[in-house]
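Lay summary. Proteins are chains of building blocks that fold into shapes, and those shapes determine what they do. In this project we predict the shape from the chain. Here is one chain we studied, written as its sequence of building blocks.
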Amino acid sequence: MFEKLQQPRDRKTRLLLGFFELLDAHFPQPLSIAQLARRLHCSPRHLRRTCRQILGCTPKECLLARRLAEAQALLANPDLDITAIAYRCGFSSPAHFSARFKA
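And here is the predicted shape, written in a compact code that computers can read:
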């Protein structure tokens, strides 16, 4: 996803860079697209449209990908169990994490 942002820093690219900064800082927390858009000073529709145009996915899909990437890294630690990893990465339950991870 990040490779597509190597183009000139126009307004949409700056929006997405801010979006990824928010994801990195807050991905374990429950986040709605409306909350993210408010923090980025844009509408939820504009955020969805920009993500789809430039990245080819929705903000929710980006959030899920970020959570799954973190979970995958944490799975290498044998001291952490699945439940701890699920909650640490922002999933609502271990079952939800497991279903998303297998998909």
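What the prediction tells us: The chain has a mean pLDDT of 91.
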